[in-house]
Structure formats: C-alpha cells, structure tokens
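New to this. Please check this record:
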Amino acid sequence: MKVHDKCFWVAETKTNNPTTDVYVLGTLYYDGDPAKWKSEMGSPNTALYGQIKSSLCTNMQKALKNSNSDISKAWTGCSLIKLTEFSAQSKITLKKKSLDPLQTKNNYAFLYANIRNSLQSYSSVKPSNYYYGRVMRVSESHLLTPCIAALLTTFSALLIISH
C-alpha cells in the first residue's frame, strides 16, 4: 500500500458550536460473533452498509450513555468511514462545550480512553445487531498511526537502499 493511500488529515471548521471528531477503529461483530463478510458490506451505496452504519452508531451511543453521561450528552453525530473484511472505521462528532474539561486535557487522552473503555465494556452485552466487538483504537485521526507506520517503513527502506 502506498503512503498516500493511508494518509490524510481532516481540516477543522470554525463554527459557533465547535465540535471535535473522534475516530474509532475496531472489529465488527454481530450477535456475539465477528460479522461474516459479504461483498455488499464494503459499498456505501448498499442497504446493508446503511444498516451496519445505523446499528454501529446506535450501539456506540448506547455504550456511551451506559457508562458516561457527559460524553453521551456531547454526541452530535456518527458516521461510518470505512468497512473492510477485517475492520470498521467510524467517526463520532462531539460538542466541545458539552465535554468535561478534565476529559479534554492533555490532547484528549482521557476522553479517548473513556470512549474506548465504554465501547469495549458494551461489547459484553452482545447486541443482536452490529457493534464493535473489539476496539483497536480511539483517536483524533483514524489514519494517523498507519500513516506514521507507512512513513517509517518508507524511510527505513530508503536508508537500506542508500547503504
């Protein structure tokens, strides 16, 4: 995979109600087990993709309500960014004004940990639809870590070639 295929950054827009986007990467589950992949799952234009988005976002919101009302009160929306056979990437949008100042200190690390723990705990409920059964990462950018890994790999390869 090329570096530019994995790397992009989301520009923030300025509004009267500033929001922050939190990206979640995890394994899609259905009714207690990893979801069985169907080709139409990967296409945003299919009904199944829409059903997965709806279930996943609803279950993420329920998870946050169950464990942390402050974060759930900040919820303004959710979208499914990408769905592959091995992972689901989604974006949660939160109102900054509704977040507890303690959760947004130190580059949102506490907020990300709370969201990850909430989603992981909720997976034990085993909803009878789509949800994150395993959360791999919660961060400010859903592609930042793979991007850095790709850049480091490219840099290492260049060093080897030059010697």
About this structure: Helices lie at 3-6, 47-67, 69-74, 109-122, 144-162.
